[in-house]
Design brief:
The chain is about 40% helix and about 10% strand. The chain is an alpha/beta fold. The protein has one domain: P-loop containing nucleotide triphosphate hydrolases (Rossmann fold, 3-Layer(aba) Sandwich), CATH 3.40.50.300. The chain has a five-stranded parallel beta sheet, with helices on both faces.
């Protein structure tokens, strides 16, 4: 396997296992992780009324060009892997896309019904853009067109069902060695967590591994059935390309 430095951009939607996946990569000795580096720019640009928005804007770099320069530059701490947890909706239309050619782009997806029933607990009246799915498809198609290859896709359920198999294959496709340390990690928050962790990460804070998949039978409210149909239509375009356990 190659030991060349790799900048790994994992493009996720909300209410996924993105933070647990960041824990997994962050437990590798060779990996530096960053938590949603474009969040402050997103909040400043959109004025979205998110919890802790003012604190986040004050705490983090807001110039997207400066953020991108850092994300594509030397890997902090002398590590060889720079794992970047991105929310797809943070890549606003005005942000340049050329830098995507300088990172290895991967995609984390989740079945829309389960995603929506989780999302509405935090955002009661979501719009399609809030799901991150249209942005995820745009990035996926862009990367596929530029590289001529289907970029790696992993589905949350597959990871929870068989983390060793799915993450092992993901590492294989990225040209890096799989590490057993990706399957277990110490509990608690991390210095690399966003300052929003105290609000959003209580479950992950107590976790020490990927918890087995549990079906979520909660129904989507009738008012959101059209939104679910739109999400399903997008998800169905990416889902067939996922890494199978």
């Amino acid at each position: 396997m190659s030991r060349q430095p790799i900048h790994l951009a994992m493009w996720c939607g909300p209410r996924n296992i993105s933070t647990a996946l960041m824990r997994s990569w962050g437990n590798r000795a060779d990996t530096f992780v960053v938590d949603e580096p474009l969040y402050a720019h997103y909040l400043q640009s959109t004025g979205a009324p998110h919890v802790m928005a003012d604190e986040i804007i004050a705490h983090y770099e807001k110039d997207w060009q400066q953020v991108v320069s850092w994300l594509t530059g030397p890997i902090p701490g002398g590590k060889t892997i720079f794992y970047q947890k991105h929310m797809t909706h943070h890549l606003l239309p005005h942000i340049g896309r050329d830098w995507l050619d300088r990172v290895s782009n991967c995609f984390l997806i989740r079945e829309p019904r389960e995603m929506l029933t989780s999302l509405i607990k935090k955002l009661p009246n979501p719009q399609l853009a809030d799901t991150g799915l249209p942005q995820q498809l745009e990035i996926f198609n862009l990367v596929r067109a530029r590289t001529g290859c289907v970029p790696p896709v992993i589905d949350s359920r597959d990871v929870l069902d068989n983390p060793r198999s799915v993450l092992g294959e993901l590492c294989q496709r990225l040209g890096i060695e799989f590490a057993e340390s990706m399957l277990h990690w110490p509990p608690g928050l991390r210095d690399t967590d966003g300052i929003w962790a105290k609000h959003w990460y209580p479950e992950v804070e107590t976790s020490t591994s990927f918890r087995p998949y549990q079906p979520k039978p909660d129904p989507v409210p009738p008012a959101l059935e059209d939104l679910l149909a739109q999400c399903d239509a997008i998800y169905s375009q990416i889902h067939p390309h996922r890494i199978l356990p």
